Inverse folding.
């Protein structure tokens, strides 16, 4: 932990609950390594207390904060400035103080993209399949649109939610070739897919041992395809374990967690941050 003095500046994360957050582990490791006079704290804020808490943060000079469930949408009317990417996603996860009030953006998109950048994969020819149509899927769609994916197929079980999801992207700032599909269509989609992303909570601790798709379905993905699970605990999830068993490339959510946190810390401190230190602290914590 950083040394706290009378001049230490405050950063933190708000959510309800928030005690499960691993952000303090990563951010305080980076802060200590950088030798800056900051500390990053978890702040439980009930939904009914959100406006009061934000006003209090301004009063005591909080530099910035992260946002987790259930405040990512509720925070938006309380901000004076929202980035285009956060507007597109419809959620904010990072807030900082400006002379005119609070500003917000969404670094989940940058975090999601980080493990996919580099290399020579032809994204402009790639069909991506996303399992789930909740808030996490929105950041994935925004990222894949920026990456230039040829087609994005969002798969879910609730037709009304799927249709609402598709409609919400009609005014996107990026070209999005998006279609929505019932879960029963997976056998037709997966043999064409170069990327399969799990944005559902299936397989997340403590509900381990479950996968959103069967091994037989995973085996229909082309060789060289990527299976990406936004879940980071356990590692690997059953979904990724099965994906590796059939020869797919596997990415878990820990890299996204570290990269989105690093992007936020860089905004607050306005300088490069030690991403490797953040990742090391996270992995060490997860190993117990």
């Amino acid at each position: 932990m950083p040394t706290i003095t009378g001049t230490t500046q405050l950063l933190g994360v708000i959510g309800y609950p928030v005690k499960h957050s691993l952000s303090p582990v990563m951010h305080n490791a980076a802060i200590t390594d950088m030798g800056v006079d900051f500390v990053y704290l978890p702040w439980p804020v009930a939904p009914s207390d959100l406006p009061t808490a934000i006003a209090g943060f301004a009063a005591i000079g909080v530099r910035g904060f992260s946002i987790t469930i259930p405040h990512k949408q509720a925070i938006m009317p309380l901000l004076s400035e929202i980035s285009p990417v956060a507007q597109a996603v419809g959620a904010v996860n990072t807030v900082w103080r400006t002379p005119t009030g609070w500003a917000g953006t969404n670094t989940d998109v940058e975090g999601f993209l980080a493990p996919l950048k580099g290399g020579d994969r032809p994204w402009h020819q790639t069909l991506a399949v996303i399992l789930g149509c909740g808030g996490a899927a929105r950041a994935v769609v925004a990222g894949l649109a920026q990456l230039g994916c040829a087609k994005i197929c969002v798969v879910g079980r609730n037709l009304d939610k799927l249709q609402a999801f598709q409609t919400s992207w009609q005014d996107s700032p990026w070209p999005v070739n998006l279609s929505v599909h019932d879960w029963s269509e997976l056998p037709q989609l997966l043999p064409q897919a170069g990327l399969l992303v799990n944005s559902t909570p299936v397989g997340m601790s403590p509900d381990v041992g479950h996968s959103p798709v069967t091994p037989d379905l995973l085996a229909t993905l082309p060789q060289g395809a990527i299976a990406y699970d936004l879940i980071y605990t356990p590692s690997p999830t059953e979904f990724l374990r099965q994906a590796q068993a059939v020869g797919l490339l596997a990415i878990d959510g820990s890299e996204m967690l570290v990269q989105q946190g690093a992007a936020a810390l860089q905004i607050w401190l306005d300088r490069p941050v030690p991403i490797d230190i953040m990742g090391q602290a996270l992995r060490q914590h997860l190993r117990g």
Notes: The two ends are 17 Å apart (CA to CA).
